[in-house]
Amino acid sequence: MPTPPVAERRQHATTIHGITRQDPYHWLRADNWQQVMQEPETLPADIRAYLEAENAYTKELLEEPQAALIEKIYREIRGRIKEDESGLPEKDGPFAYNSRMEEGKQYPILVRTPRDGGPEEILLDCNVEAGEGYFGFGGADHDPSHRILAWSADRQGSEFYTMRFRDLATGKDSDEVLEDIAGGGVWSADSTAIYYTEYDDNHRPWRVRRHVMGTPQSDDEIVYEEKDPGFFVGVDETLSRSHIVIDAHDHQTSEFWIIDAKSGGAPRLVSARQAEREYDIEERDGVFYILTNADGAEDFKIMTAPVATPGSEHWVELVPHTPGVLILDIIVLKHHLVRLERFEGLPRIVVRELDTGKEWTVKFDEEAYSLGMSAGFEFDTTTIRFTYSSPTTPSRTYDLDLATGERTLLKEQEVPSGHNPADYETKRIFATAKDGERVPITLLYRKGLKLDGSAPALLYGYGAYGIAMPASFSVSKLSLVDRGVVYATAHVRGGMDKGYAWYRNGRREHKVNTFTDFIAAAETLIELGYTSKGRIVAEGGSAGGLLMGAVANMRPELWAGVIAEVPFVDVLNTMLDDSLPLTPPEWPEWGNPITDKAAYDRIASYAPYEQVEAKDYAPMLVIAGLTDPRVTYWEPAKWVAKLRATKTGDAPLYLKTHMGAGHSGASGRFDALKETGLSYAFALQCMGLA
Questions:
Q1: Which of 145, 203, 432, 656 has its CA 20 to 30 A from that of 7?
Q2: Does 31 participate in catalysis according to the annotation?
Q3: Chain centroid to CA 637
Q4: Smallest Cα–Cα separation from 419: which of 350, 481, 345?
Q5: Which residues on neighbouring strands pair with residue 178, listed in sequence order?
Q6: Mean pLDDT rounded to a whole number for the chain
Q7: The whole model's pTM is what?
Q8: Is 243 part of the annotated catalytic residue set?
C-alpha cells in the first residue's frame, strides 16, 4: 500500500484579539498567488511537489483501481446527452441568434440566421478557438448594428478574461484586444464604445471603463471606481436598452448608477447605498421598476420611480411585500411586468398587464420542480420563455404568450439512451431541525426501491449566499439512482429555498443552522427508512464544501463518505486575510473576525480547518483548482494536510488538484463529465457498490 503524502510542518504563528494560533501548513499559500493564478508555472517548487504527490496518491489508489467504473459512468452520462444539441433562436432586429453543440465537440458554436428563417451563419466556433488546455468561455455580445461580436475567454481558470472583436462580415478578429477584464461587456447604443469591468490588484472587480473602438486599451476612460474593497462592481443594461447600468454590491447591500445609452456621459446615482438594503432596476417609458427589500420588505416588493428623479424618496409601491412570498426576479417589457416568485418552497411565474393591473399565474403540480424564465433580447414583445423540469422530468422549454396566456412547447430535453419518468419517484419530505424549523428535502429514487433502510443515499447540500437548490432534472444523478441510490438534496438554511428569512437564519451568527439542518436531513432519511447510518455519502462544493467539512467534524459516524469540491474550509484564515479577492465582500456573509472578536470566536468554532481532531473520519475525496480565485487551492490542501497528520483510523483521504483549472474544474463538457465519474465512483465505492 502506498504511503500517503506528508506535508512538512513549518512554524507559523499569528496573534489577534490576544489569541495566538499555530498554522503549520501556512506555507502552502504561495506568496505570489496573484501571479500563480495567471501563470500556474510560477507556483513555488515545494508547493507543487506536495500537490503533485497528492495527485499521484489519488491516481494510484482511486483513479486507476476505479478506472473502469469511472469510464462506465462517464459513458452512461454522455449517452444521456444529445451531443448535436441546438439551442432555441432569440430574435433581435433582423436576426435570430442561437448556439449549438456538435457531436464529439466540447464547446458551443454561436450562430445566427435571418429573423424569419434562412441560411445559418457561424459567428464563433469555440472549439476552434479553444485549442489545447483550459478554455473558459466568457460569453459573446453582438453590437446594436449587428456588425461586431465582442467575445471573451479565460485560458487559465483564473477568471481573467481577454476580449476580442470579430468583424461579422469577414468572420475575422481585429487586432483590437482588451486584456485582463472581468468578463463580458455592454455596447453603447451607437456601437462606438463598449463598457467593461476590470479587476484591482487583489482580483476584485472594482472599476468600469469605457473603451472607444479603434483606440488603445490604455486610453480607456474610467467611468466608475469603487472605493470600498467590500463591494464588487458589474455593468449591464436595461432590457429597454435605454441605460447602461453599473451596480456596486456586497451580499446584502446594493447601489446603482445609470448612463444614458445614447448620449453617454458621467454615471448618475439612482439611490445611495444603505446597509442591508438591496435593489435592482429595469426601465420602461421613463419609469424605473425597482425590486427591493427596502423598509423591512424581507421577501422583496416592487416599486416605481421616474428616471428623472430615481432616488428612494420618490419610490412608489406597485407590488407590495407579502411575507413568505419571495420575489426572485422580474422582467419588464413594453406592456407587461413578469415576476418569478417562490411560495412554500416552489417557484411560480406571475404576469401583470401594466395597462390594466390584471394578474395571472403559471405553476405546476409536481411535489418538487424547478422553473426559470428569460426575456431574450427584445423589449417590445408579448412573449417570454420559461423552462420547467423536475428530478424525474427532463427540461421543457416553452414560449409564453403574455397577451393570451398560451404556452407553446418549443423543446423537450432528449435523453438518447432512453428515459422513462414513470420509472422514478420524486418526493418532497421535511426534516425537523434542532430549533423546530422544517427543512425541505427533495428525493429521487427508482420506483419500487425497498425503503427499509438498506439503500445507500447521496445527500447534497450548499446553504450560503441565499442560493436555492433547484429541484431540477439531471442526467448525471441517474447513474447513482439507477444503481439503487437514493439521491437527496437538503434545502438547508443559508439558501433562500423558503424565503429571505431562510437565508438570514443561515448566515453570520446563525451559520451553525446550515450544518445542523443538514445533519437533521440525514437523520430523517434514516428515520424514515430511506437509508441507514453509515450508508450516506455527503456531497457539496465551494461554500457547500464548508458544509461538508463542518458535518465531517460534527458527526463523522453518519457518513459512508464525504465529497468536498473546491471546499471553503479555511474560513478563519481567509476571513482574516483582507488581501484575498473575496474576503472584504464576504464579511457581511460570515462576519469580520479582524475587527469583531465575537465573529472571530464564532468562525473558529466551526471552521473545518480549525476543528480537525484526532478521531476517525469518514472516507473523503477533496477536489481543488490551482487557479481558483474563489476558493484558493491552499484551503483544501491545508485541510487535507492537517487531516492526514491528525485523524485516526485508516479511512482513505484523497486530494485531487487540477493544476490548470479553477473553481469550475475542467472547461470542456465531456472533461467535466469525467470529473463527475470520479466523484460518483468514489461514492459508490464508499457505499459498497463498486
A1: 203
A2: no
A3: 22
A4: 481
A5: 163
A6: 95
A7: 0.92
A8: no
